[in-house]
Amino acid sequence: MQLTEIDTSALSPQVYQYIKKLENEIEILKEQVNVLLLKRFGRSSEQYDPAQQPLFTEESEHLPETESEKQEIKSYTRGKAGRKAIDPKIERREKIIDIPEEEKKCACGHEMVRIGEETSEKLHIEQPVIYVEKTIRPKYACRHCEGTEDEGRPAVRIAPVPPSIIPRSIASASLLSYIMIQKYQDHIPFHRQEAQFLRIGAEISRQDMSNWQQHIYTFLSPLYSLVRNIIKTGPVMRMDETTAQVMGEEGRKDTQTSYIWLARGGPPGKTVVLYEYRPTHEAKHAKELLEGFSGYLQTDGNESYDTAVKGMPGIIHVGCFAHVRRKFYEASKATKKPQSAEEGLKFIRKLYEIESNLREEKYEENKFLAERKKLAEPVLDDFRNWLNKRANEVLPSGLLGKAVGYALNQWDKVIRYLESPYLTPDNNTCENAIRPYVLGRKNYLFHMSPEGADSSCGMYTLIETAKQNGVDPSKYLRELFEKAPYTKSVEDWEKLLPWNIFNS
Predict the structure, then answer these.
(1) Cα dihedral value 453, 459, 464, 470, nearest 10
(2) Residues 1-27: tens digit of each pLDDT
(3) What SS3 state is found at 343?
(4) Cβ(112)–Cβ(106) under 8 Å?
(5) By C-alpha distance, which of 64, 66, 42 is closest to 52?
(6) d(Cα 381, Cα 409) in Å, to the nearest integer?
(7) What is the Cα–Cα distance from 458 to 450, expressed in whole angstroms?
């Protein structure tokens, strides 16, 4: 029973306020339970579906749809029904199934002629082919003078050993590329790869693979230094972070949480995705990664970034509308009356609709900025007025109150995306870039050492940077591992960047 259902005239003000406080606490606890149920059993996607009823609500009230809120659904062409054709790039091996020769003769005595054929396709796969490349270097010597007539050159002549990224090792560039792609793109830990190699007759221990990874990371240190500089030369840098468990950290327990920091940036057309391991979540680590950068920094609402950019006047901090939307989304799914949260989502959906439509037009930069401001600023003004109004009406500790408070607290930062054509309303490209690490972490669980965490970040940096630039990571790593031993200068390393390596 609630206060609205009883006669409160007989209650003292103190009792009335106490009961009201308990009611609010109960409502907040219900919302927290509903959020947990939503995260455990609900859809992880935040995509809006107007036909779906809000979860965990006691009432089915909906805001009426006004004429201005109706959206035109773009037409599309339905694809042909049936199985999708197999990629024509895959090799074809023909198998002809013919009738016996005696059946090719007609009863009239004449030979039958081929008038056509029917075809079908099936995919076949064979286990990986592994072979040993045996290098032979013939030796030459003179039987007559035994080299005494040519003292300036060795008596026995032999071709030099080709340089290798791991000298005196059985690991070729192709094998190393295969192992790193298996772990850092397909998320298969070394111990599982060890078992896979045994099945095809190769004995490669997980320790060997780990040692190879460390050696590669050390050898490619000039390339990583180059990447760390390039990421700071673009107009925008985006950052995010996720947790990691690292063993053997000095002065820390193995159970303590460490962090993988991610930065995405670089000049247009040369995107760099940089992963860096740090033992803590302190702002000083973000500051280290930002040192030397000048431009827009887009992040979520983590206070570490606010602290980091203090004293860095060349950096303009930009917020993320996706995090604002997420809080309203949770409120719309977990509160008793979701109408207000849904109203907040409508403002955000309108901003994304404007952004999407303008991006499709492919305007020149200045026109794009002008059009975006003209269309988005009225929506933002209405949204801000609505937030100020709701802030005085809702319980601050409730889900909707927290969503409103977060939006107002982040307001000055989230609207800065209007200032640059290279900015978007959210930081999703950075969050998407960190997802491969999260998927890998679910499989290998932890890093055995800080050095292992560093080298793992190096592998993710190479693979994800290649992907962001439209380069096949497997081909890139193989080419990189083959060419890296021949480098002698910074210019040589520059030729090995993903956007250069196949052009040199």
Answers:
(1) 180
(2) 455 555 666 667 776 677 766 666 676
(3) helix
(4) yes
(5) 42
(6) 15
(7) 12
Phi-psi region of 257 (alpha: psi -120 to 50; beta: other; left: phi over 0): beta
- Strand residues in 78-216 grouped as ranges (E): 139-140, 157-158
| pLDDT per position as a tens digit, 412-463 | 999 999 999 999 999 999 989 999 999 999 999 999 999 999 999 999 999 9
Residue 472 neighbours by CB under 8 Å, 6+ apart: 466
DSSP of 347-390, one letter per residue?
Answer: HHHHHHHHHHHHHHHT--HHHHHHHHHHHHHHHHHHHHHHHHHH
Interacting residues of 17 by C-beta distance below 8 A, sequence separation 6+:
none
- Dist CA 156 CA 198 (whole Å): 40
Measured from the Cβ of residue 394, the count of other Cβ atoms closer than 10 Å reads 20
CA dist 221 and 493 (Å) reads 10
3-state secondary structure of 5: helix
Q: Name the nearest CA neighbour of 498 among 478, 458, 470.
A: 470
Burial 256-265 (b: 16+ CB within 10 A, else e): eebbbbbbbb
